[in-house]
Every structure is written in C-alpha cells, then in structure tokens.
Amino acid sequence: MTSTVTTPAINTSSEAIGARTEVKPDAGTSQGSDIIEASAPELATTQKDPYQGDGVDPSKAAALIPQRTAIEWIAYSVSLNYNRQLLRQLQREQCLEDVVNLCAEFSGHIETMQELGLVQCWIPTRDFQTPSLESIWTGVRFISKCEARWQGLDESKRGSLYIHCKAGRGRSATVALCWLLFAYKLIPEQAQLVLLKARAQVDKDIYLHSEVVSFYDQVLEQENNSDIVRIDWPDSQ
Questions:
Q1: Entry's InterPro entries (predicted)?
Q2: I want to staple 13 with a disulfide (CB 3.0 to 4.6 A). Which of 72, 138, 184, 199 is the partner?
Q3: Residue of 103, 146, 165, 178 with catalytic role
Q4: How much is the pTM?
Q5: Residue 76, Cα to own-chain centre: how many angstroms?
Q6: Are 216 and 192 in contact (CB under 8 A)?
C-alpha cells in the first residue's frame, strides 16, 4: 500500500512530515489488503477518548453520514475489518497516535481507536468534494498540535499521524498539501510535487483548487505578520 521515499523530514503516504507525521491518505481503501496479517495481536489499551474537541464529534455521525445504497453497504461492511486491522498494524509498525479522517461516509472505528489509545480528528467531507477552507484549517491545526507534542523528542519516541479518506487521492491529499504549505516555504505547485513524489496516485490538480489558493493566501498573510514561521523544505536547502 505504501512505497517509502525517504527525505529528511517527510513521510507522506510513505513519509514523515516534520517529526513523523504520516500523510498516508489511504486508510479507507481496501487496496493492499495482502499486507494485513490475518490475525493481528491485541495491543495494550490506554482508553484514551478518540475525540478530544478537534473536528466533529463522532457521536453526531447519525445525522451527518449520507444514506448508503445496498451495494454501498456491502462494500462498506467488507472493508470494516480490514480497516480495524490496518489501525493495529500502523500502531505496531509506525507508532500511530493520531488520525485525521476526511470521510463523511464513515466516522471512524471509535471503539478500536479507544482500545488503541488513538485520537481522531473527524472532518466529514463528501466524496469527490474538496474540503472547505474551514475544514482544511481544522486539519492543519490538529496536525500542528500533534507535531508540537513530538517536538524535541528522540526519533524513536515520536509518534505518527495518519491522514485518510476513501481512496487517498483528493480529500486527504488536500489537507496534506495544505499542511506542507503551512509548515514549509513551498508554493502550491511545489507542495503538489512533494505529494506526487510520495504518492503518485493523488489528484494532479489539487494545488489549483480555490480552497487551496485561499488557504495559501492566508498562510502568506500570517507569515508576513510574523504569526507563523515556515521553514525551508529539506530539498531546497
């Protein structure tokens, strides 16, 4: 499911951003299920609440999740166990601590995340739609909060964060691209290339979306006002 392209500071669907932020936008897809062990061992639980005020409260999911057709329910049910096992695998292999979920159609495996001590930021966005500017900022602020928590820790003690939607091409990739713009001195075209290098199947024109353009304008304004500090992208140093 992932192919690692090592850089000093990023792991997009394959790399770590900043500390070890995982911009892996494909947790919802059933592709690559052959890498999932048939029976993953249970991990010790910390009973952390998966919802801690970031994004939308999953308890409101019944009123937010679109109605599914019979075929959609079948596909959805088949993928559920795979996704649970994927969470366990990611925690075991990538020190997963946090999840950004862009799926409007799925509020996340809340019980499994509580069992594993994971924290989720749910940003319900319908399939084939671009996250709103507000939703993008919600995701970026959550990622930044997680990065701040890992700041100064040894690499071996840093956690990772997983961004996903259904296919990992549009919704989650949009938030990943915008986080790159927020954290690094990149222009939208450059951030798009970073994503494509790490995950070739992301949509090729994300950087042109009006929401991304508006986000970048706001980032530049904050930088000019010294409200944020962006750093050089490693490849440009």
A1: Prot-tyrosine_phosphatase-like (IPR029021), Tyr_Pase_AS (IPR016130), Tyr_Pase_dom (IPR000387)
A2: 199
A3: 165
A4: 0.71
A5: 20
A6: no
- Cβ atoms of 88 and 116 within 8 Å: the answer is yes
**Strand, coil or helix: 156:** helix
Tell me the CA end-to-end span of the chain in Å, nearest whole number: 30
The region, left, alpha or beta by phi > 0 then psi within -120 to 50, assigned to residue 218 is alpha
pLDDT tens readout for residues 130-154: 999 999 999 999 999 999 988 888 8
166, burial (CB in 10 Å: exposed 0-12, middle 13-18, buried 19+): buried
**Is 165 tagged catalytic?**
yes
Q: What is the DSSP string of 74-126?
A: HHHHHHHHHHHHHHHHHHHHH-EEEEEEEETT----HHHHHHHT-EEEEEEE-
Buried b (16+ CB within 10 A) or exposed e, 196-220: bebbeebbeebbebebbeebbeebe
- The single-letter DSSP state of residue 21 is E
Amino acid at 133: L
